Structures
1.
Amino acid sequence: MLARAGAGAAFAVGGGSVVGAPAASARAAVPDGDLAYARLLVALELLSLDFYSQALRAGRFPATLELRRARAAEKQHYDAVAAVLTDAGQVPATAQDIDFSYPRGSFGSQRAIARLGVRLETLSLGAYLGAVRALETPEFRNHAARAAASEAQHLSVFSGAVGGRRIGPPLPPALPIDRVSDALDAYAS
């Protein structure tokens, strides 16, 4: 997934008014590992935005207000992570850069949407928790922790819709960057 996003689609973390860091020219360079996470998280947020848009278009999930709020949150997450790349002089991927595909029937019923939502939000939560563990840039790490809290809220909506627990494990697992990238490959074509 990281390779597919391309070198020109790199993420820029921190900086600007999005996460409260000083202008790019006034701060130290973002470490390469943080930029790799930024690229991955941009792709993940683009997948989330695509999923929520398709779920809303399908009209089969009754909690449309919650879907709209989650989509708006994913857009804010994308903007914050994309700003990290932009501040580092890289061009973040956009929706036009990646074609997403889903298993057949993913949007055919409320239950199908909720099951896919559980998978994607579990991935997002794990990705952000993994980023918190690995990131070196304090502002980016702060954003990742806050985004993880948001992703956990999204996950609870879908978990409840499939009859699962709305309150998940007390210490959800953090996923390493390679596992997140591999999981994203299943949805990108």
2.
Amino acid sequence: VEGVKPRETAYALPQSGLYSMRSDWNKDAISLTLKCGPDGGWHSQPDNGTFDLYAGDRILMPDAGSYIYSGDPEWRSWFRQTKVHQTITLNNENSTYDPKLLYWNTNDDSNILVVENQSYDDLTHRRSVIFVEKRYFVIVDEAYGTASGNVGLHFQLASGKSVSDQKNNTIRTDFPDGWNVFLKTRNTVGKIELIEEEGWISHKYTVKESRPAFCFNTVKKSSTPVIRFVTVLIPYNQKRSDIEVKIKNEPKNKVISQMRIEIIENNTKKNIEYNL
């Protein structure tokens, strides 16, 4: 008996901290699933804010996996690290669990999710994810608090070739056919450095393989209230649009409660607004 496709394409499960957005229920759909939930115990990893990205029946930005649970504490610890997930760290240290859902809105045009995690005693991570026209994503990451040190925004790609551009702060997968993903990040507050990191992924228990991993790093001073990264995340099949993003009402010294974003795609402007 064949099932019936769900009518909805976006789901929020705040108690577990799982949120999903997808373009449709076809095989070639674009889909992003994000985690920002409570401490789940032994099987949980300190990775609030992380996500997986799929497009065209291909996992473009998968989770690292667990690799092993016992017998090899070094590798068990490596795969659990916050910094090997798609999220923010302070000095590459593991984060804690203190999640909040701040905003959730879905319509036929775009989906918007805003979550927050008190990742460190003196640094909170707020992540806004906008699924624009159900074709690509705009992600705004705000790290705010009195902390000082290296604030890193980490991303990992599927195993295979990748291309990075340190001058323009871009990374992408490089599959010869089918779907790929392109990612461009900028720090709107200060300087940014694109660093290639050690990357591993485990699809099967005790089996691992290398994969591309990167960090957009910036130095935060205790006198700097907030660090803000703006990322354009574009899954594409063969041809990719040229997309630029600007926050129109960006404050310098605090997080944004009323977001106003201007998106320019191939010389066409689009505005998205929401109020927390």
3.
Amino acid sequence: MAKRSTLRDVAALAAVSRSAVARVLLGTGGDHVRIAPATRDRIEKAALRLNYSPNRSAQQLRGVSSRMLGLIIETENLPVMSARLFSLEHEAARQGYRLLIGRTHGETAQLNDYLADFTGRGAEAIFCLFDLKPGRDERVKKIFAGFKSVVFHGRPAWERGYCVKTDTAAAIRASVDHLVARGKRRIGLALWNVPRDELMRTRKESFIAAVAAHKIRSPEKLVWDAASVSVEPSAEILDHGMETMVKRHGADAIIASNDIWAARFIIRLKEMGMRIPEDIAVVGYDNLDIGAVLTPSLTTIDQCHEAYAAAAIGLLVRLARGGRIALRERTVAIPPRLVVRNSS
């Protein structure tokens, strides 16, 4: 078996000190060890030539931070989750950490395996980037009973836990306020499945409150629930919802569940001879690339993935370092941004 390259080997080849190599490759030394760009480049090339990789097990035995974090992601909403994943990986790297990534398909059984794998590889904290749907909390709580350095998406699985979320209520308020300012008074809200998804319930409640604040009566009539088993219902279901809101209840604006739904609504409305936004305005959610190339371009909600990633990685790193986190700092709500374009 070939001998494993060490920090000392890399230091000798790069003609630098061992502490300089450790700073570049392991992130140790903090600000006490400063590395010039040319030196960093030389160290990285030497490490690549020697096929060097850190011995994480040996580091853990010596009490050295592994600089590794775990991430368990659910890809039910792939475009949004992918954007968040890229932002999380970038932020982790910026702070000198690496991500171990696992994917769950809605089953909690996989979490046991990921927890064992991640902790065995030295992950110091774990981010659960999936929704805690009804009934899931207790199973998740049992799985992580002995490992509390966990940050959740949306809401924590247990009291006094940690989470990062987008301020959904603020997103809906911003959409309603914008549409009312544009003269719209019969605003429809399209949701994929209210009973199955807490986030959809939050959107509905926030919408009703936001519309009522403008003294618009009976907003509940214009809330349409697709009652779909998938976040991507068929074109026929979406057509039915649009016609229900527009033809039956006279909606002059629609806040769609996401940008893909919004794109479908815009296409069908144009086929029906309706002008957008003059006859009916459309607002999406997620700020996907498709929104900028639609005709008309789509007004939408940007969930600010970079700010989300900074908050999530920030919590994870503080947990990894054993820092005390005040109760008021354990839930971070990221303010969304309304991107106004031509569809409203």
4.
Amino acid sequence: LCLGRGAYRLHGVPRMHERPQAELFAALRQLGYRIDTPNDHLPAIIHGGGPRPAACQVSAAASSQFASALLLAQRPGGWRVEILGQNDDEMPYVEMTRRMAETFPQAGGRFTVEADASSGSYFVGADILQAENGCEAGRIAIPRWPLTPWQVDARFPRFWPLPAEVSRQKDLGDSIMTAIVLAPFARQSVRFVELGRLRVQECERVAALRTELAKCGARVEEQGDTLVVHPSQLHGAEIETYHDHRMAMCFALVGLRVPGIRLRDPGCVRKTFPNFFEKLAAAPPHGLGVVIRDVATGARLQGEQLRAD
């Protein structure tokens, strides 16, 4: 909006008023733009002035999204953006944005947008569960899996069998949640370490994963920012998703192997993957052919009934 010439009012953006925006607003003010807001949160009025060569500093310590947004607008804005407060959790996403911006054909041409590896991890996980249940591995094909190392979660297929330890900072990004819900089906106990970032996302994900896996009969120990998940015999349970899209998709994955998994507020997947359940239920080769039922009526749900609008 700063690159436009008018004034733009931002308000009514779902849940965005709950997130910190002060860091981003401060960086834009360093670049010379005017932002009217009483408390450095939405709602806000942004006064655009077009490209304005200037420099700013922004921290990636709390979130990579501020840094990524500024980097994407850096070239058309004529800005110089310095990233401060780097941390191992967030920098892979900043570097992915930087590389994409550098290689994008500014003068026109073709640019391949990679598939989202974090969302793809659920279908890799589904294939893993089939193999662990005695079926042939590789029956679920994921076309166009990312070929570059830009996405940290593109590594996910290499993390089965799960090693004894997996780090949120060094090994996997968001897909570490997928690995955690697969861990009860592993052949050994697995330590998931450096999970602090998960505590400050859509919900307190460390506690949520421990609580909901325990409901299913998993033996899980929480020690600081570490979860130790032991091989366990799971059973059905009603799962609280905490309005968190990844909690819903992770435990839907558990439901592919464990009968009786019931999800509260499954529609929260609308944030990143609104047709997730539609994809699960679609007949092969376009889906997995999973039977999904309405908890209240027992009726089978199919097609657009499963789309989260």
